[in-house]
Structures are given as structure tokens and as C-alpha cells.
Design a protein that fits this description.
Layout (H helix, E strand, L loop, with lengths): L18 H15 L11 H11 L7 H4 L2 H4 L10 H15 L2 E2 L4 E2 L1 E2 L4 E2 L3 H12 L3
Antiparallel strand pairs: 1-2, 3-4
Length: 134
């Protein structure tokens, strides 16, 4: 089957992906299968697919019909985000999506009558747990 000439993210080979993006995608897959304190996975399968798709933003910020254009140029209209900034963006999104309520698309801790907010301190703590580091 001939390779398509279209520059769609699904038409890229795994060997064309950078080591940084490959490592982030492996970590996202690993986190999706790990169990949290309630013996459930860190996030559901649909969220895992969302995060794996978003991880392609690291190497291909113009993918998906340029839908992430505003995110890529959020700091400057001339210069886009650097690769390390896009990587950190994906990592933070992974942490935030671990609190995502799939039914309502709200981030927080679901209670019977409302959503409890997530503090910045707990976001930093989970970031260190997921990604290690500083």
C-alpha cells in the first residue's frame, strides 16, 4: 500500500517521532494502566486516547488541521512555542486530565452535589508523581 502524500499525523511512521515525544507517549500509556488509590486506572481509555493524540503536538504543532494554532502562538504571533514548552504543555494537560470528569468535561473531584476544586499544590504534587523532576 503506497504511503499517502497527505501530512496527517496518522500518516507518520513511529520512527519519525522524536525520542521526547515517544517517551511522553509511553509514560501516558503507562499512567493509563496504573491504578490509583481507588483501584481504578489513573484516567479512562477515552482520556488516554485524547492525551496520546495531544502528545503529537510536541513534534507536529500544526497537525490536526491547525486546530492548535492559538495554543502554539500563545506567547507571540511570530514565534511559536519551543519543543520543550510544548512538551511541558502536554505534561500539564496529562495531570489536569487525571481529574477530568468525562461526563461533564469538568476538572475537579466529583461529589454528589458539586465538583470540588483542585488546588495548585495538589497539581504540583501530582505532576511530580507523574513526571518526577523539579
Amino acid at each position: 500500500m503506497p504511503k499517502s502524500n497527505r501530512k496527517h499525523p496518522k500518516n507518520t511512521y513511529k520512527r519519525d517521532v522524536s525520542a521526547v515525544q515517544r517517551a511522553v507517549m509511553q509514560r501516558i500509556s503507562g499512567l493509563g494502566s496504573q491504578k490509583n488509590e481507588f483501584k481504578k486506572s489513573q484516567y479512562p481509555y477515552c482520556t488516554k486516547r485524547l492525551l496520546l493524540s495531544f502528545a503529537s503536538f510536541i513534534d507536529n504543532p500544526h497537525g490536526y488541521n491547525n486546530q492548535l494554532h492559538d495554543l502554539y502562538y500563545c506567547q507571540s504571533t511570530i514565534y511559536g512555542l519551543q519543543q520543550r514548552q510544548r512538551e511541558n504543555c502536554v505534561k500539564v494537560m496529562t495531570v489536569l486530565c487525571s481529574w477530568l470528569e468525562v461526563e461533564t468535561n469538568q476538572i475537579g473531584i466529583a461529589k454528589r452535589e458539586h465538583m470540588d476544586t483542585v488546588t495548585h499544590k495538589s497539581i504540583m504534587k501530582r505532576y511530580k508523581k507523574y513526571w518526577g523532576g523539579h
